[in-house]
Amino acid sequence: MTAGWRQSLALRVSLMFTLVVALAAAGLGSYLYRTFVTEIERRDDIQLLGKLRQVQMLLGRPGAAELLQAQPDYFRDTMSGQENSLVHILAPDGRVLADINALHETYPLPAAAGAAPTLEAIRSWRTRSGAPGRVVAGSARLETGEVSVVVARAYAERSAMFARYRQQIAGAALVSALGAALLAALLLRRGLRPLRSVAEHASLVRPGTLAQRIEVDGAPSELLPLIRALNDMLARLQEAYARLSGFSADLAHEFRTPVANLLGQSQVMLAQPRSSADYQDLIASNVEELERLARMIESMLFLARAGQDEVVLARQSLQASDELQKVADFFEGMAEERGLAFDYAASGSVLADPALLRRALANLVSNAVRHADAGSTILLRAVARGAFMELGVSNSGAPLAPVHLAHLFERFYRADPARSDADGSTGLGLSIVGAIMDLHGGEAGVQAEAGSITFTLRFPIG
Amino acid sequence: MTILVIEDEPKTGDYLQRGLAESGFGVRLARNGRDGLHIAQEEEIELVVLDVMLPRMNGWEVLAALRAAPATAQIPVLFLTARDEVQDRVRGLELGADDYLVKPFAFVELVARIRTLLRRGPVREDEHIRIGDMEIDVLMRRVRRGGTAIVLTAQEFALLHLLARRQGQVLSRALIASQVWDMNFDSDTNVIDAAVRRLRRKIDDPFTHKLIHTRRGMGYVCEAEAAPAA
Q: How far is residue A353 from each of residues A140, A219, A242, B86, measured CA to CA in Å?
């Protein structure tokens, strides 16, 4: 029960709604009942006063005193009119002149409140059976002198009527509460239908159906933020999934070439007896292919771990110029062969993991050395720019079409597909640079100008 | 010098046994952890090459048992792991392993690490190294060949010093990158090749006897006599 209460929104809202309707119906009913009762009682009181006046007038007629003495029965008949009207007439000396009391009720005899009592002078009493009664006393002029007239009435039927009326109101309140409960449940079922349809949509999402979106049109405004959030989530998942499956396909493709080479050349060599020099050549060639595969695997694992934030950074404050110099020294031999020179314009320090910074810079310088125009100069820069320390590697070279720039940091992206494996690159270098910058909370970027290309690493300062 | 190799993967075990034997070590091969531990306890073993993923008794358990017994507590252990996870490495080193390699690794790298572990104690750096007719004055950073002084840049000298210090040993490109330039990741192989070519132009090209030799698929070795590929 408590679990259902907590779990079902419909049940909760229905119950609360029912409670509200029941309270409102009960409040309205009791208000109407109160008003009704007050009105009936007022009318009865006015009637009681009328009765008193009637008796006063009767007593004021000529011969009334005599009639009261001589023919009390006649007088009683004239007076009572109704069974439950009780009349008590007292002489000033306390003598009872008349007492009309068929049921022998006992009721209080208040002092006369003048000749014309108002509603305020009316007092309450109770019959022996517990029914409510009202009583009023007024003075009347008899020929023989002033007397006190007490008129009372019992309202047994009125109580019964009030009780019936109360029951009816309670019944009506109960019925409307039940009706409200039923209606609320039905309406909520209807009202929550969009929510169920969202859930149905969400339950149908499969890796292959990530392109579908939950319908926004016709959805209630309260659900729009939820639907938009779900759709945004789907978009992000779709993008990541597409990237991942594209990546797997690329990976398989990248692995296919070296594996095919390994298989093919080994099988060719095994088909006939060969000289030991041939075997050595084969094995050395296989080792080269395998080294490339091993490098690719290492790079992939690095990217996978970086993507899951499993790489622990050991950040240090490093002199930017030292780091650039170290990496340039590493490539000195290669640069010399292509007649390239390094130029530095570096100052300031950078907060980074030294091994990862070196790896990122080495990947950029390796690209620069590979693609720079022979005999040109590679510029290594470091400059503080706002909240970032910017390290840049620029080289002159054949212009790169703008369409390529946006994709350069994607895994296995090559601006020139023909120049894929010959230089021994894995196609993962720049994506590793991107991953390293993500780990540092910075970013990697590339700008191409006429005849030159610049890669920048932006490390946040502090 | 007997090395115990504990490795369950058949091909890996076979090539490690063969390669290490050909590098001049006595080799005992165990195919599971329990046998390996038994051999380590019963025989004279200088060093253990331990795979982490082993049937029956895994590498961590073997390592813990080796370190627990006084007779085997001092044997250097180099562990091999296929998972380059930080916690794996930390766990191995915490349990008392001396070094580790992540699969796939270059065989020459393994041999270099084993030699380092077996050398024990602080390595005494020679102040003068002589290979064939080449003399290296390490402190003065001077190189002479057959009476001719050769001028080297700082990078070239560091590379030559590494090759000469480990003369006769094949050094992988990764090891060279790491030792000379402190680049501890698998980089472009062309970089090391270019650096060695540059060094050769000064050290070997003017002379008939070559001192720096390429071991195709493995790396470089510096020695006076060109020995057949090991």
A: 116, 50, 31, 16
Pick one of 2.60.40, 2.40.128, 1.10.287, 1.20.58 as the CATH number of A224-307.
1.10.287
Spell out the alpha helix ranges (H) of A104-223. Answer: 156-191, 193-203
Complex ipTM over 0.90: no
- Residues A151 and A57: their CA atoms lie apart, in Å, by 13
Angle between helices B107-119 and B10-22 (to 10 degrees): 60
Whether cis (ω within 30° of 0) applies to the bond prior to B104 is: yes
Which numeric CATH code is attached to A316-460? 3.30.565.10
For residue B41, the Cα-to-chain-centroid distance in whole angstroms is: 26
CA–CA distance, B163 with A51 (Å, rounded to integer): 136
pTM for this model (two decimals): 0.63
CATH code linked to domain A2-164: 3.30.450
In DSSP terms, which residues pair with A134 in a beta bridge? A124, A153
**What domains can you pick out in chain B, each with its CATH number?**
2-119 (3.40.50.2300), 128-222 (1.10.10.10)
Nearest-CA distance A295 → chain B (Å): 6
Residue of A nearest to B106 (CA): A291
CA distance B73 to chain A (A): 31
Which whole number is the average pLDDT over A37-41? 92
**CA–CA gap between residue A232 and residue A211 (Å, rounded):** 11
Whole-number mean pLDDT of chain A? 85
User: Tokens at residue A440, please?
Assistant: 């540092």
Residue type, B72: T
Contact assignment for B182 to A326 by CB distance below 8 Å: yes
- Name A439's Cβ contacts closer than 8 Å, sequence gap at least 6: A306, A309, A311, A313, A353, A356
Contacts of A331 in chain B (CB under 8 A): 191
Most confident of A101-115, A341-355, A411-425, B101-115: A341-355
Q: How far is CA A453 from CA A294, A337, A372, in A?
A: 30, 21, 9
pLDDT at B182: 85
Most A-contacting residue of B18, B90, B176, B190 (CB-CB within 10 A), to test interface: B190
When CB atoms are compared, the residue of A295, A330, A366 closest to B186 is A295
